[in-house]
Write a structure and sequence with these properties.
It holds the Pfam family Glycos_transf_2. Residues 328-351 are annotated as: Disordered. It comes from Actinomadura fulvescens. This is Glycosyltransferase 2-like domain-containing protein. The structure is a single chain. This protein is an alpha/beta fold. 45% of the residues lie in helices and 16% in strands. It has a domain at 6-245: Spore Coat Polysaccharide Biosynthesis Protein SpsA, Chain A. It has 11 helices and 9 strands. Strands 1, 2, 3, 4, 5, 6, 7, 8 and 9 form a 9-stranded mixed sheet that branches. α2 (46-55) links the parallel β2 and β3 (60-63). α7 (205-216) runs parallel beside α8 (241-262). The radius of gyration is 22 Å and the shape is globular.
Length: 351
Amino acid sequence: MSGIGFSVVICAYTERRWDDVHAAVASVRAQLHAPEEIIVVVDHNPALYARLRESLTGVTVVENREGRGLSGGKNTGVAVARGDVVAFLDDDAVAAPGWLEAFARHYDDPAVAGVGGLTLPMWPGSTPSNVLVSAPVPETTGARPGWFPEEFDWTVGCTYRGMRPGPIRNLMGGNASFRREMFPVAGGFSTGIGRGFHKRPLGCEETEFCIRLRQRSPRSELVFDDEAVIWHRVPPERARFSYFRERCYAEGLSKALVTQSVGSQDGLASERAHALKTLPRGAMKGVGDAFRGEPAGIGRAGAITVGLAWTAWGYGVGLGAARRRARQARRARRDQGAMATRGRPGGEGVV
């Protein structure tokens, strides 16, 4: 299906990523499989919207028509898109020239509803975005902090150790594509999950969407292809241990919302396997690396332990909060029912 048309959606929200957004657009323009259109959705920032409309010639720049946040921005982009497939790229990422080409070859199979790719981190010290505007492939990707375990690269929006090419439960939102026809089936991205105006670095809007898509279209497949490569920038503040802990806790909160929406069996299936298999292996490898003369291995083993604990803590807190909200909603419905009964003729005093 070499003639498949792609609409590439990039969601932007802050002037601080001015060069990043332009680098992302430049990388899409340089694709071997040229996109049908590039759509930049600006999240409730009129000044940025006006500037990008002027600077990004040949690009469709629109304002987020839904509530503030990434889910609303993605839904707006989908509503505008005309391509057969809608691909999403983070505003602080650049795509390798073969990105869309790798996606396209999977859509020859009508069972494939979505394809995601390999997201590699650009750590502090990597090629700056103002250079990537004219040369979208980074010459250097910086230096990973020695304590940072690859098993937790998801905390910075990147592919983590343990992911394997082939069928997958959910795609990562910043490097994903879906047939446009699947969005009415799944119902779009939930605005109650994921990044918004909250201070906490929440996520999982794409996880919940993918699970819901598969629940409503069980024969559809989602595929991870490690040849569909992008590089995602990690700013210095996100390479710190304090952010790592905060992001893990926020992920637990988000996972609680996901399980309330799609059920714990589907909502935690991949997480259970990751926690029971990949993370213990990673911790043991870190300890082994330390014994082999690499002190940072102990740091990685410790980070894996802390990351798992903080994520579980967040999940427990989020699950408790969700259950309290559910009880309050049931109580409110009962109260409304009782009031309605009292208001009917002969209903006075009935409880």
